[in-house]
Amino acid sequence: MKIRIATIVAACLLAVSTLASGAEAAKEFMLKNGMKVIVKEDHRAPTAVHMVWYRVGSMDEVNRTTGVAHVLEHMMFKGTKTLKPGEFSARVAALGGRENAFTNKDYTAYFQQIEKSRLEAVMKLEADRMANLVFDADEFSREIRVVMEERRLRTDDQPTAKLYEALNATAFFAHPYHHPIVGWMNDLQNMTVQDAQDWYKKWYGPNNATMVVTGDVDAERVHALAEKYFGRIPRKALPLEKAEIEPPQQGARRVTVKAPAENPYVALAFKAPRLTDVEKDNDVYALEVLEAVLDGYDNARLPAKLVRTDRVAISVGASYSSEARGPVLFVLDGTPAAGTTTAQLETLLRAEVQRIAKEGVTKEELERVKNQVIAGQIYKRDSIFGQAMEIGVMEMTGVGQQNIDRVIERIGQVTPEQVQAVAAKYFDDDHLTVGTLDPLPLSDKTPKTATPLPAGMRH
Question: How confident is the model at residue 444 (pLDDT cuts 50, 70, 90)?
Fold first, then answer.
């Protein structure tokens, strides 16, 4: 999480103090059916977050059924043997809670945030749809149209989203990250209710799920409730997970997307390492710090030089996240200012990384940036929902929630030499895919920003 210059030391210290006084170490339990339960007690407010994470996402899909993980997420709200379509959400609302779900490349998760005394009720609801989901053809027919409209609104009508879809498809030839999470439109148009039901039967079992509960709860009580409602669900014979290895890249790749847009845009995606071994993956932590050096605060190198000083860009950025089940990208991006081409901005973005590779960073700059990165990690935990999210992501990507604090420690140990070394190592043509948005004239009907989803469309 990027933290901006408004994050001052006093606020950071206050956050650390608050967390230390209100939160405890997470406790783990394993049910006999293979379901993992993680509870993080935090007694600052009388609320709780309940999440169930399934270790399956769009990367587990195959050709002709892309998007099915996300489609099933929608179907999970369409009724069980005892609940009518929409009744799940209505019951959570009646309990005074909020709920939703999200699908990622690596996982699918469902959550409720409720007053602590309502926890048992939502656990019962969630266990019911893990075991008893109903697949009605008419409900599926309606919901698949909702998903297709979601794709139109969030991807087809959004030039930057279209660019990143093409960028991923170009960067990854073999790995299933090639496919968009929402799925290709043709696959959605030809998807059947049986496809969704097969996905559910294949992946949605307790031994492929992790429950995360955070907030004003008692860990032993949560464990007992998990046994009561989820412990009775039989484990499934899960498919054998086969590693999909992206072949080595040999030279830069390029893709151009033409779409109605106000401005051109360019994104440079460099293949970079993901976090697999907390103690050995030194480059990952150095890349986290490098990202912050480039774009981690208001006066970071990219916006300071390219936007405010040289005025060659309207906006610039850097992004990198090492927590994933598959290969990850370190992205530099930006919108050129008038008089600057996307090709020129591409060169200027790379030049800033090359400058660090040649000259390094000062100890003072490094300390300032590491404080920003660490503060950002701390602030992610300043809400019980943020804590649940962090635990879930670390578990789904194989890092393990028990390593959360160690990751922050390792970031704090990064040296200037390590930052300089990764700047020289990963930003050559053999790691690079460039996506360029070539703007077409806007029409009166062209949306300029993301359009809110109509009522009834999830997340």
Answer: low
